[in-house]
């Protein structure tokens, strides 16, 4: 076995340096999370930073914000279920241009096990714009079955047709 360090002191110093790097990385990650929480930046389906929607009404409201931010058509009242709406928003988010979604090129996805991962910018609900700096890494997000494997209706089944009095959208 080849020695990496010339003596015990060098090995110990190398260990301490690795520990400092880990602590600095953890502190940086904690600072970013605190900023995202303070700005209330959101991921798909969240009613607040780190808090999933608890009702269908809440999730519909959130998806409407995403649809406006993505310049997509509003909820199809009386024609669309919550599951269909959520899936439409998810696919629009993954396929959005110019908001900063970062993915592996298609020709490299099968070559690397993690090639289906995506970085998705966080939504600022106050401005209904995507943040250019903060976001979420979603492992496997580009796999065709990701949505069905991860999405859950907040109440009921999610297969009920949306039939509600939709509040008017804000005009830009």
From the structure above, extract its key features.
elongated; two-stranded antiparallel ribbon; 5 helices; 3-stranded antiparallel beta sheet; 5 strands; 172 residues; alpha+beta; 2 domains; 14% strand
Amino-to-carboxy terminus distance: 67 Å
If helices are DSSP runs of H or I spanning 4 or more residues, what is the number of helices?
5
The main sheet orders its strands as: 3-4-5
Number of strands: 5
Whole-number count of domains: 2
Shape descriptor reads elongated
Helix- and strand-based class?
Answer: alpha+beta
Radius of gyration: 21 Å
Range of helix content = 25-40%
- Which whole number gives the mean pLDDT? 86
Your description of this structure?
With 172 residues, the chain is of the alpha+beta class. The chain folds into two domains: 1-39; 42-172, no CATH class. The chain has helices spanning 8-39, 56-69, 82-94, 106-109, 146-150; strands spanning 46-48, 51-52, 102-103, 118-124, 129-138. Strand 4 and strand 5 form a beta hairpin. Helix 2 (56-69) runs parallel beside helix 3 (82-94). The mean pLDDT is 86.
